[in-house]
Give the backbone structure.
Amino acid sequence: MRTSSEVFAQKGYDRASVRDISAATEVSLSGLYHYFSSKEELLFLIQKTCFDTLLERLGEDLAGLESPGERLSVVVRNHVRFFADNMAEMKVLSHEADALTGDYKEQIADRKRDYVNIVRQCVEEILETPHEADGRVATFALFGMMNWIYTWYRPTRDVSVDRLGSVILHTFLNGISSPLPHQGKAVEEAGPHGTLLFDKD
């Protein structure tokens, strides 16, 4: 699935063929069809695996955390770390969201909705006076910051993944006008809901 994600990311789902995937994976066409029945099912499996992994990891990392600041920090770091390690999959999820049909589409929509709802709940816990519209806008603004890192982020040239998560979280919560926490130091930001910890890089 990783190699297939790279093929879809490079060529686009519509232009990529099963033969392209066969050549890239060095697996015969008949061998590939042992694992999936169609190109659409392969795309579904890629997206399903991504969302299932995100939901499982996030559930484990949020378990037992009560501080809104810590919970949102976990959301951002979980998301950024996963997609920094899976850039091709991230591009496929972003660009091929509407390529699935029927039951495949419904299953992914359900998982995506579950994930968005968890993130939105964590965002709204930060808001002093939560309002439905504000929570929705803030949540998708955060996704907008996180979901497009595959277009520009280069770990060999930019900051570490942990630092990237800290910068995104700090910018989302405080804007760019306030000083960023110093790299390599633990910085505590006191807010209306308690203490938010930026971990060491």
